[in-house]
Amino acid sequence: MQPSIIAALDLQCEKQPDALALVGEQHVLSYQGLRAAIEQISAQLGAMPAKTMGLALDNSPLWVVFDLAGLASDKVIIPLPFFFSDEQVAHSIRDAGITCVLTDQPDLYQKILAASGIETEATFTHIINDQQISEIRLANIPAKELPAGTVKVTYTSGTTGHPKGVCLSGEALYKVATSLLAVTRGKPGDRHVSILPLSTLLENLAGVYVPLLAGATCHLLPQATVGLSGSSGLDVQKMLGTLIKYHATTTILTPQLLHAAVAAIEAGHPKPEALRFVAIGGATVSERLLQRAQNLGIPAFEGYGLSECASVVSLNTENNRCIGSVGKPLPHTQLKFNEDGEILVAGSTLLGYTGGEPVPAGAYWPTGDIGFLDENGFLHLTGRKKNIFITSFGRNVSPEWVERELTLHPAIAQAAVFGEARPWNVAVIVPRGNAAEAAVNQAIEEANLVLPDYAQVKCWLPAATPFLPQNGQLTANGRLKREAIQAQYQTAIEKLYP
User: Which structural domain range is residue 413 located in?
Assistant: First the structure.
């Protein structure tokens, strides 16, 4: 049998049929029960006319059953995040040719579809494990031809309203999952608690496939239960309480969630004592935050990846760790670099984008990220290729490089650096807490000491508000929306130059 997530799951079912695989708020499935549920749902999916299906469920064991049933059958399951805007949901449906949506929130989806001009052909209700699931068949969505071998299409929020659909093969997903299993030393005794939505590829793969390949238990609770709401709402006490209640040994957090957890524990909240591996992904993590986590005994390990490479590319681990890097490349990964330092990745790349040309097998994917491998084999990121600006002196500057140095200092929470065609660089800064102007000036002076003159910040202005997803200045995974920030502060920035 060809190696696959489903084949590996079958082996675990043979080894330990009665061991707990999935634990939800109301339902529990053993490995044997999970396999039976996959067979049942596969049969039901097979009776549905749609080939490409959108999955819009809250975190639960049933989400995983549908996802795995898609892998086990001839259907393509496409996760639709609830943190997407209505426009992004409608775009994803049209872009991938989704002709059926499976959801536990039919009223919400009926409103989204009606507002977007997407017609409903019929709606059927299924009762699965006492949970009501609606099958909404769509009438005016033409089917799309996806690259051969596509088993999953993942959409990321990106920096625009129209994210791209990344088509992935079962082989790519399996490669990444087995590599992660090896480097994180997953084992049957692990208890993974999902905090991030399962609709994000990182949680879907590293938070479900990896624990199941290890024979471990996945705790899958609704987002409200673990303290998350929307794209950025967080009740940190609920999040930490969930990790403590279920004795989590592993979890995955974004830098924002790690920061909230660290701050709460520093303020006296009990720490989840059973944790052995906390993977941090989605955006760059400051070295200072990782050091604070380490001082508290939180085993936080930064990694790096992208959807086009089936999620994780590199990861720090207990045995191979270098704070300030994004870890060593996973065993299946091959890296090389363009002359400008752009990272190229092979080993588990996408089949293509929806509606685009197929990507040749074995091709190196241009990540758009600038970086290097150090003498010990750790990968370091220094910026985004597309964000590089050129000063009036002809010097190339990666703003992320400068911003990272600025935000290492306690007085600066966020920074956006600009300097295209200018003699020097300026920054829009969000001070941390009640940091005074003098403290920010001191932080900039200290950052400039480690930067070459052409990358130093000469002037700055305070941001009117923090950069947030709600005001359109931050993506859901923590990346600055530079055009939006520059548009708001353009007049003030111009005044900083004589």
Answer: 388-495
